[in-house]
Amino acid sequence: MTFPYDQARLQALFDDVDARTAAAVQTAQQAAQYQPRSRGVSEQDLAEIERYARSGKAPKEFKDLQQRIDSGEFSWKDIASGRVMDDGVQKALATGVPDLQRAYTAIEDGQDIDDIIASGNPAAQQRPRRDDDDEDDGPSHFRKDAW
Q1: Is the C-alpha dihedral spanning 18, 19, 20, 23 positive or negative?
Q2: How many CA atoms lie within 13 A of 138 on its CB side?
Q3: pLDDT of residue 125
């Protein structure tokens, strides 16, 4: 009895599978070596958040949150790690959502990320609203069950 496939064609299929497997292994090895730019919120970041919360620029919700931290209820580190996410924390974090949305839009529009960060006021917020913009692009506030 003879094998129904042409040997050369079968070998070509095996070679293709071997090549794809090798490429997948190489990609996995490269991915394993990837180091993200940030390993989370640093102590400097937390100190900057606290300075902002104590400043006159901070919204009431942030100031209330800082008072709770000052009373020893929890810390900024607890918030950053997600250990604390009650209504007060969610309200304080939600105050930044419009700025994040403007920054996201500026990034999508091709603006330089460093310029957006440096300005603290992305030019996208002056961008006229397009008719195809959808106001229901996502949640308008942070909720623990949304994580």
Answers
A1: positive
A2: 11
A3: 41
Output DSSP code: residue 122. -
Residues 69 and 79: their CA atoms lie apart, in Å, by 10
Q: 42 — alpha (psi -120 to 50), left (phi > 0) or beta?
A: beta
Compute φ and ψ for 20, nearest 5 degrees. Answer: -65, -40
60-70 helix and 87-94 helix, angle to the nearest 10 degrees: 140
In this predicted model, what pLDDT tens digit does every residue of 3-45 receive, in sequence order? 666 888 888 999 999 999 999 999 988 888 877 665 677 888 8
- Chain center to CA of 60: 25
Quote the CA–CA distance of 100 and 98 in Å, as a whole number.
Answer: 5
CB atoms inside a 10 Å sphere around CB 138: 8
User: What's the CA gap between 107 and 55, in Å, rounded?
Assistant: 27
**Contact call for residues 76 and 50 (beta carbons, < 8 A):** yes
Q: What is the CA radius of gyration of the chain?
A: 25
